[in-house]
Amino acid sequence: MSDREQEELTVRTELNQLVMDYSYSTKINCKAFNEDGTMIVSSNFPKMQLQFCQFIYEAVGNSRCNKSYLYGAKQSGKYGDAYIYYCPFGLVNWTVPIIRRRDDNLYLTGGPILIHQVDTMLLEQIHQVSPPLKQREEEIELLLNDIRFIEPRRVRYLADLLLRISKSLMDTDFLRINDIREDNIFKSQLVDNICTLKKISKVELQDTTSYLKSKEADVISKLKAGNISGAKEVLNHILGYIFYESLDNMDIIKWKASQLVIILAQIFSELGAEMKNISNIKLKYLDKILKTNNINELSMHMLSIFDHYSDAIIPVINIKNKEVILIAINYIKNNFHNNISLQEVAVKVGMHPVNFSKLFKKETGRSFPDYLNIIRIETSKELLKKNLSLADVAVLVGYNDQSYFSKIFKKFQGLTPKEWQKNKGIT
């Protein structure tokens, strides 16, 4: 047996076990198929969920269902994410990709289930797809009532669980999958922001210069706190504002986007990114922005430049260390308000504390305690703007001692919390 054949046999064995484990633990049917829709394995469990599908296959054929499976597969592969969809007969399924280097991707599907109770609207939808089925309405309703009902929120969790499981069989870079997901989330949020702006009167909106200035401090604060995703949300709002205000005039949009690139370059330089790297990134993307002719492409350029600027703040010399550092930073960001320690984060990334400490300092340019304190202080500044008591702010950002919080705050800001508030006109 060749290495390729052995690998495929191993994948098929693992795939079969994965499908069965998911199905019997969730009591939801699960199956795997390839890009042309050929079924590889199906749990065929529980039987009650499948009786309706078998009835449909026998009554009208399975071509519509197969097309919906392939559509779900295409969408999940495109977005690198779980894709939840209705089949032609009103049942809900979810599909996740198993992306592989050879591009012979595989797909897992969970379902079918119902996300609302059987009603006349569902029955009418089935009749519209295949009018002859109206003659068998009572039989169809009985079969539908045997299908499991699951709340929409739980469906999202079930789909995410299947996605996490599918990663065990991927032989490609997980970071690329995450990039695909992030790109599409960014696009979706951008559309939402533009739609929101359309509901606001022109009188309420600021001019672009004032708007950018008002958002600049927000971006800086979030970046200093290590909140890259939060800073991206601000970027998304800025782009939505630019696109809306410029009335689809691409020349104006490109000019304003170019100004934003320059402003972001200044921000990231002030945050410690190497000027040479920032300049190279800036020139590269300014050229791309000037050459682009559509908003979708421009927004992806802006997301890319933001990511490249961010990488310049936290330079990772050895690419093998990148995932370790990103996991550590994400864990710190999500748990800074607790009494976390170097040892705790080291365990999280599977390293000895001494080795992790050296690696963290080498790759980020900051010691673990300094990095943690910076995140806490930057977050505390947002809370101080809300005029909370110093004691409350200290506890909320992870300091049990108010006086120690004031001492650390002054070390990093040059002012005590009270002096900082006074300087900002908050008190």
Q: Major β-sheet, in short?
A: 5 strands, antiparallel
- Please give the alpha-carbon distance between the first and last residues: 76 Å
Low-confidence stretches: 172-177, 315-319
Q: What fraction, in percent, of the residue positions are helical? A: 55-70%
Strand content: 5-15%
Q: Strand sequence of the main sheet, in spatial order?
A: 2-1-5-4-3
- Structural category is alpha+beta
Order of helices and strands: HEEHHEEEHHHHHHHHHHHHHHHH
What do you see in this structure?
About 65% of the residues lie in helices and about 5% in strands. It has 19 helices and five strands. It has a five-stranded antiparallel β-sheet with strand order 2-1-5-4-3. β3 (about 85) and β4 form a beta hairpin. Residues about 170-175 and about 315-320 have low confidence and may be disordered.
